[in-house]
Amino acid sequence: MPNRLPEPGADERAHSDRLLQLLREQIVSHGPMPFSQYMERCLYAPGLGYYSAGRTKFGAAGDFVTAPELGDLFAGCVVNAVQPVLAMLGDEADFLELGGGSGAFAEAALKALAAGGALPRQYLILEPSADLRERQRERLAANLPPGLHARVQWLDRPPEQDWRGVLFANEVIDALPATRFAMRQGEVYEEYVALDGEGRLTRVDRPADALVAGAVRHVERDLGVEFVDGYRSELLPQLPYWIQAVAGALTAGLLLFVDYGYVRREYYLPERDDGTLMAHYRHHAHNDPLYLPGLNDLTTSVDFTALAEAGNSAGFGVAGYLPQAQFLIGAGLQQVFEDAQAKVADEHGRYRLAQQAKRLMLPEQMGERFQAMLLARGLDALPLPAELLAADQGGRL
User: Fold this and answer.
1) Domain chopping of the chain, boundaries
2) What is the CB-side half-sphere exposure of residue 177 using CA atoms within 13 A?
3) Contact 225, 192 (CB under 8 A)
4) How far is CA 210 from CA 5, 214, 217, 347, in A?
5) Can the keyword Transmembrane be found in this entry's annotation (predicted)?
6) CB of 158 within 8 A of CB of 127?
7) For residue 200, how many other CB atoms are within 10 A of its CB?
């Protein structure tokens, strides 16, 4: 067990044991499973996975805090950035949020869009978790005026008919099931999850198939170096297919991804020789993905160079790439902050607002660890804030 982690309650441990039993049965029946499949089961197995079970995930009572959970500043800046695109696309423009979390972003974004006079035709939420979807429904029904709430629709799958608008995803790609690879004597191996002699989960390496080996060799060619023996990391060979699946029907508009990660040459630094895989449990980060399956959020950092390549392959061009702090400044954080401060009557509220801004902006918090990438297609012009375009660091990709 990782050191200094909170002890799970009896119900939590029983829940994890049920998922563990399912994993064991699948491994016994089909042999060791690729780590990506193990991660998918741990996060999304119906009724048992981290995101599909009923435990609180977000905020102080959960396992981690996302930018929308801190308050409304983040959503206000996102709306500032994308509202000109919605306005240019007109009355038929929709807004699609991938993975709605607690519903905090949707609530704040819809109120900001209404205040700015550029409401989308529909506010769509693609949420695979039935539990989270129900929480979102309850929150938005309780906190939005009926006219705004009526614009919200939940989707079971990405739009299949052509549409125009904005797709937004905050901390979504880090939760895509990642492939783990390792190098042995110049050959590419893939990490699997197996059972040891006592029925416990363990990680083993097997020779990689052509898809995984080809993806690793592509990274090596792009970097101009070969990974040394023993080097271990992750990649998402499915990312181009995923982008095409979620955004392929968007004929005109913008994709905005915010997540933690690096450009490729920083992601695969020689000293980062065990990758970026992390588990999050009750605001504690640790590196044992086999511990209490189903109770931990498993994540990997995003290779933003790979995201740009995937966007290009789906017909999108990179419209901007920059650290979160620069994105928020370029999207008018100062004005959003001043407007919010003017509505706060007490000193404690002002202090909380200042703390929210610090969490979003400080380099050691979210300001530099998180990056924003904008991908565009089918737009005659790119009506993004000039300050945001001026801060673009796309040349680093």
Assistant:
1) 10-396
2) 19
3) no
4) 39, 6, 10, 60
5) yes
6) no
7) 11
User: Which of 55, 180, 154 minimizes the C-alpha distance to 99?
Assistant: 154
Contacts 24+ apart (CB under 8 A), 380-386: 381/88, 382/319, 383/84, 383/85, 383/87, 383/88, 384/81, 384/84, 384/85, 384/319, 384/320, 385/80, 385/81, 385/84, 385/330, 385/331, 385/332
Pick the CATH number of 10-396 from 3.40.50.10800, 3.10.20.740, 3.40.50.12710, 3.40.50.300: 3.40.50.12710
Rounded Cα distance, 273 and 361, in Å: 28
Predicted local distance difference test score (pLDDT) of residue 62: 46
Distance CA 90, CA 71 (A): 29
- Average pLDDT of the residues in 306-330: 96
Tens of pLDDT, residue by residue over 212-269, are: 999 999 999 999 999 999 999 999 999 999 999 999 999 999 999 999 999 999 999 9
Distance of CA 280 to the CA centre of its chain: 14
| Separation CA 203–CA 196 (nearest Å) | 9
For CA atoms 255, 260, 262, 268, the dihedral sign is negative
More confident residue, 316 or 197: 316
* 129-180 per-position pLDDT tens digit: 888 899 999 999 999 999 999 999 999 999 999 999 999 999 999 999 999 9
* Euclidean distance between CA atoms 161 and 343, whole angstroms: 41
As given in the structure block, the two tokens for residue 230 are 């023993």
Q: Which residue has the tokens 């703390």?
A: 355
- pLDDT tens column, 21-73: 999 999 999 999 999 999 999 999 988 999 876 554 444 444 456 787 877 99
